[in-house]
Amino acid sequence: MYQLYIDPGTGGMLFTVLFGILSVVVFSLRALMLKLKFSAGGGKAVKANGKKIPIAVFTDHKRYWNVFEPLLDEFEKRHQKVVYYTCSKDDPIFNKKYEYITGEFLGEGNKAFTRLNLLNADVVLATTPNLDVFQWKRSQNTDCYIYISHNPNDITMYRMFALDHYDALILSGDYQVRQARQLEKLRGFEPKDIEICGLPFMDEMKKRLETAGKPAEHERTILLAPTWGENGLLTRFGDKVIDALISTGYKIIVRPHPQSFTAEKELMDRLMSKYKENPRFSWNRDNDNFEVLRQSDILISDFSGVIFDYALIFDKPLIYTETEIDMELYDASWLDETPWTLRILPDLGLKLTEDNVGDIKSLIDKCIEDSSFAAGRDKARAETWEHIGEGTKRSVDFVMNKYNEVITKRDSEKQKTADSSKKSRKKLSIGTKG
């Protein structure tokens, strides 16, 4: 009698896939119940959406304003009407004076998704993953969904099936396109319309840096800016890394992730109580990180997205910690390759470990003085930030092209319906005369 054997890796992937399918079924049933509920109420939700919106932009949090502001400014210049839907009541959109752009607060959680799931629009542009996987469903009244990248890294570092149900993708590098095509082939999906447009928000920060100019002469300054969570640098290294940095004699700035003060309050309270501010050590909690990035000489971080802003825009070296990620939960687990985000790190700086944290001064000096890391930053830019300075125009051009395709297709279908109706009336008229 034969026994079926499944290796642990394959078993884990199968479990994740089954879990994903089960989640889709559960949320699909919930969406169906909501639609039935609204239908029973006379279709009030559909009517509330009113006239078809030409272009809708959706953001699940105000932190993505830097992604969308340059695009909205460009739509405004082109006199293109856009509705910007946000889940943040205090989103910066409400402080902007636009003529053609309208901001609207959707609410939070399921309230927001309930409205989105019945949205009446030609095109929706978003940076939110998992469309048609969890709560956020494709609306039958919306023609085209476009994803735009908000980070210069792998699109496979999302949870499984994250971008499968978008119609089109705006990306920043050719390796991302290859990843998307591999996933489409593995899952049997039709090829999406994909355009490499660059990164508008990074273009804008680059312009801002060029305008600000070089910072004044200063002593060597180290920025420690980790993310939060159990794999975050402060959780893993804590006092050990701060003590080592203070011993270097350099100026130290520690900028924790904002979420750390909520999710890791006990840790932050202890560290901030132990390490008081002085002329050579400070805590930074500014809303805008631009100045602290500009004025520091090297960044020490983990897997925070700030590492790419720092290396690619500010053109400075970094020290990174080893990242422990269970890939089985991510789209990356479907591909037989190490994600670009992890592969490129050795080209940008040196790795901080438990063994070398005591020698952090040597790591800092080598990273700053070794010219090979400058070449690594050039390599990274070439691979993940194409069309530098052109991202906004190219992205808006692409969205407008998709919008025009939707209108053209609808007009064509209307014409076919009209022609068919005309032929039917003509046949009816001939039959009546006969």
Question: What is the count of distinct domains?
Answer: 2
Q: Order of strands in the sheet with the most strands?
A: 3-2-1-4-5-6-7
Order of helical and strand elements: HHEHEEHEEEHEHEHEHHEHEHEHHEHHH
Number of helices: 16
Rg, Å, rounded: 25 Å
Q: Helical amount among residues, as a percent range?
A: 40-55%
Largest β sheet strand count, sense and barrel closure: 7 strands, parallel
DSSP strand tally: 13
CATH superfamily descriptor of the largest domain:
Glycogen Phosphorylase B
CATH topology of the largest domain: Rossmann fold
Which spans have pLDDT < 50 for at least 5 consecutive residues? 1-13, 37-49
Oligomer: single chain
- What is the rounded distance between the termini? 77 Å
Structural class by helix and strand composition: alpha/beta
Query: What percentage of the residues does DSSP assign to strands (E)?
Result: 5-15%
CATH hierarchy: architecture of the largest domain: 3-Layer(aba) Sandwich
Mean pLDDT: 87
Q: Can you tell me the overall shape? A: elongated
> What is the CATH class designation of the largest domain?
Alpha Beta
Q: What can you see in these coordinates?
A:
The chain folds into two domains: 34-199, Rossmann fold; 209-384, 3-Layer(aba) Sandwich (Rossmann fold). It contains 16 helices and 13 strands. It has 434 residues and is α/β, with parallel strands linked by helices. Strands 3-2-1-4-5-6-7 form a seven-stranded parallel sheet. Helix 3 (65-77) crosses helix 6 (200-212) and helix 3 (65-77) crosses helix 16. Helix 11 links the parallel strand 11 (298-301) and strand 12. The model is unreliable at 1-13 and 37-49 (pLDDT under 50). The longest helix is centred in the last third of the chain and has 43 residues, at 391-433. It has helices at residues 8-40, 44-49, 65-77, 110-116, 174-187, 200-212, 233-246, 260-263, 265-274, 290-295, 306-313, 340-343, 345-348, 360-369, 372-384, 391-433; strands at 53-59, 82-86, 101-105, 121-126, 142-148, 168-171, 193-196, 221-224, 251-254, 281-283, 298-301, 318-321, 349-352. The chain is elongated, with a radius of gyration of 25 Å.
